[in-house]
Amino acid sequence: QVQLVESGGGLVQAGGSLRLSCAASGRTFSTLVMGWFRQAPGKERDFVAGISWTGAKTYYAESVKGRFTISRDNAKNTVYLQMNSLKPEDTAVYYCGADVDRSWGVSTLKGDYDYWGQGTQVTVSS
């Protein structure tokens, strides 16, 4: 079992920044591939960013490339999502997910993630 707890969401004006955190417990964090997804009202949960075990490989959705940065601190069992130049279309509930079975790379598919946090709301006003 893996427990994930997100934090750091909130209300911000367009052009602003937020940093989301996701604290993990229950399994050796350095063996988990981690991802951030988001879900807007009435829409599917979409991939935002993912990071490999060591942090050496990162992947981003096209819509956030150059604005968002995913990172991890294996000593603190935490993954982060730094979000800059936020836009109203970034408004969503953000979820972190853990993929426990991946031996290489990062998946962008939500079905490949085994555990999820409760989500944190990000609202960007225009």
Helix and strand topology:
Blueprint: E1 3-7, E2 10-13, E3 18-25, E4 33-39, E5 45-51, E6 58-60, E7 68-73, E8 78-83, E9 92-99, E10 115-116, E11 120-125
Parallel strand pairs: 2-11
Antiparallel strand pairs: 1-3, 3-8, 4-5, 4-9, 5-6, 7-8, 9-10, 9-11
Summary keywords:
11 strands; 126 residues
Question: Short summary of the structure?
Answer:
This protein is an all-beta fold and 126 residues long.
| Content-based structural category | mainly beta
Q: What is Rg?
A: 13 Å
How many strand elements? 11
Strand content: over 45%
Describe what this molecule looks like in 3D.
- The protein is mostly beta strands.
- The protein has strands at residues 3-7, 10-13, 18-25, 33-39, 45-51, 58-60, 68-73, 78-83, 92-99, 115-116, 120-125.
- The protein is globular.
- The mean pLDDT is 96.
